[in-house]
Each structure stands twice: as C-alpha cells, then as structure tokens.
Amino acid sequence: MLVNASYNNPEIDRKIDSLVGKPFTLKQRWTMKGIGSPKLYITSASLQIRNLLLLDNNLDSCNIELRPDGIILRFRSLLETYALVIPYYKLTLYKGDLGIYSVYMDHHFVKVRADTKAIQRFFVKLLGYKADQMPQSPPNL
C-alpha cells in the first residue's frame, strides 16, 4: 500500500497499524539494536514510485522501518513523505549485482544501493526477522 504519510491522519495510521502492526516499544528496539535502516539511495523504482521521485531534483533516498508484521519504506518528494507499507507475507527481497538490494511488493519495487557494511547488516537483520515471523511449515509426514 503506497500512501502519503505527510500529515497526521488517524485513518491512515489505523490502516498501517493493521497491516504491519504497532511500532515496537523502546525496550524491544533496544534489544533488537535498532529497527531503522541507514539512509538508502534509490537506483531504480516502479513506475508509480518513479513518477513521484521525478517531481523534484533531490537525490532519491529512502529508509526502512521494521514493524512486528512488516516493514515501512519511506521516501520524500516535494516536501511530502510517502510510505510503502509491506507486510512480511508480501515482501520479497533480492540481492542483485554488486550491492544492489531490491524490495518488492506486488507491482511496486524499489532498488537500493548497499555499499556499506551497515546497510548489508540491516538487510541481514531484516531477512532474519522476516524468517522468524513467517508461519512454520507443516511437519513432514
């Protein structure tokens, strides 16, 4: 779900919380050693997101916030903040060539550069947390 998250709108907040859960508590954030990504530079994106990013001349960047049931990928364009809300069951991550990670959900995607160790560690943490939250497969019979 791609939404404009610039303004305090309780209806949008409820939709986001129902999809990816409420934010982690401070104690949980401390034990997880942070839930936010470093600044990620966008190399390419899907058509709808690319059209939003082309509206201004700034460097295209985003960040990712972990939630209990998904992630929120936020980016800015023309003084507006947009959020791509992705539940874990729709999240697909790919590691492309030479430090390019792709985040996919349905027909939306964002490809980001992962040229530092901190960014690579964040994606490893994200994959591990996604694996922990996914339902277990049925036992072999």
General description of the model:
The chain is built from four helices and eight strands, in the order βααβαββββββα. It is an alpha+beta fold. It has one domain: PH-domain like (Roll), CATH 2.30.29. A hairpin with a 2-residue loop joins strand 4 and strand 5. The longest helix is centred in the C-terminal third of the chain and has 17 residues.
Q: Ranges with pLDDT <50 over ≥5 residues?
A: none
Strand portion: 25-35%
The total of helices stands at 4
Distance between the termini: 38 Å
Give the overall silhouette.
Answer: globular
The spatial strand order of the largest sheet comes to: 1-5-4-3-2-8-7-6
Write the layout of secondary structure elements.
Elements: E1 2-4, H1 10-20, H2 26-31, E2 40-45, H3 47-53, E3 61-67, E4 70-77, E5 80-87, E6 92-95, E7 100-105, E8 108-113, H4 117-133
Antiparallel strand pairs: 1-5, 2-3, 2-8, 3-4, 4-5, 6-7, 7-8
Produce a short descriptive summary.
With 141 residues, this protein is α+β, with helices and mostly antiparallel strands. The chain is 29% helix and 34% strand. It is built from 4 helices and 8 strands.
